[in-house]
């Protein structure tokens, strides 16, 4: 697809708008799509429910005030100037948070996603283990994402944390649909937008009646088997060597 296509996306109850977090163009595309689709709800991966409740009509249009209310500067996410236009693109949309406290994500690595998620774990696909091939593939993806620098015994826990975050985002979407009637736009990393293992997969289990459109944004061609309904390929951000922090140089 092209950026212009974002102005006329196929109708869906839920549109998952993926991003590479530090790519400004991806956020501009998200704001453009949100303005065109006019959702009744916005679900942000970057916000907990408590943070989302701090968004008010009074602070929403003021980037500095909203960023301060959210504690964004201490969150670890890229600069709030990238995200604020998404909030104002649909000024009447209710904001929901799909993030979890950091301790909950850490606990999932040792206790498992189902134990941390709670009673609805089975509904969101967390109660059953992954098939061996799927587990191995996801561990390999986590290893690659961390420059093959993680101890092997951490990888299974990293997969549990990712599954927990997918399910938490899906739960926030279900709540947003119940409270607003939709449509819902989800702002999240492209990994969570994947149909085969991300938020769309969790929603297919938890709320199979919902129509879901998955849009990935990548910095390289994902190939013919891309796990999205639609996708955009953009130039990469010049971020240097991401593996340098691990003391590794990529050729």
Automatic annotation (TrEMBL):
Keyword Ribonucleoprotein among UniProt keywords: no
InterPro entries in the record: Cofac_haem-bd_dom (IPR007314)
Superkingdom, natural source: Bacteria
Residue ranges constituting the Haem-binding uptake Tiki superfamily ChaN domain according to the UniProt record: 7-203
Keywords: Lipoprotein
Designated name of the protein: ChaN family lipoprotein
């Amino acid at each position: 697809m092209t950026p212009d296509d974002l102005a006329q996306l196929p109708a869906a109850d839920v549109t998952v708008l993926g991003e590479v977090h530090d790519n400004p163009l991806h956020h501009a595309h998200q704001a453009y799509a949100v303005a065109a689709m006019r959702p009744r709800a916005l679900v942000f991966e970057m916000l907990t429910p408590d943070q989302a409740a701090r968004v008010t009509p009074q602070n929403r249009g003021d980037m500095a005030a909203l960023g301060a209310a959210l504690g964004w500067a201490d969150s670890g996410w890229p600069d709030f100037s990238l995200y604020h236009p998404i909030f104002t693109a649909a000024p009447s949309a209710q904001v929901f948070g799909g993030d979890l406290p950091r301790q909950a994500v850490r606990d999932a690595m040792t206790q498992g996603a189902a134990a941390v998620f709670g009673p609805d774990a089975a509904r969101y696909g967390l109660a059953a283990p992954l098939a061996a091939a799927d587990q191995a593939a996801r561990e390999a993806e986590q290893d690659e994402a961390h420059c093959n620098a993680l101890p092997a015994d951490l990888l299974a826990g990293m997969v549990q944390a990712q599954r927990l975050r997918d399910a938490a985002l899906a739960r926030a979407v279900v709540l947003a649909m119940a409270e607003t009637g939709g449509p819902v736009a989800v702002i999240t990393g492209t990994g969570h937008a994947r149909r085969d293992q991300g938020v769309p997969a969790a929603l297919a289990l938890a709320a199979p009646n919902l129509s879901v459109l998955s849009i990935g944004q990548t910095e390289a061609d994902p190939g013919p088997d891309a796990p999205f309904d639609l996708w955009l390929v953009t130039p990469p951000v010049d971020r240097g060597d991401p593996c340098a922090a691990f003391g590794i140089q990529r050729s």
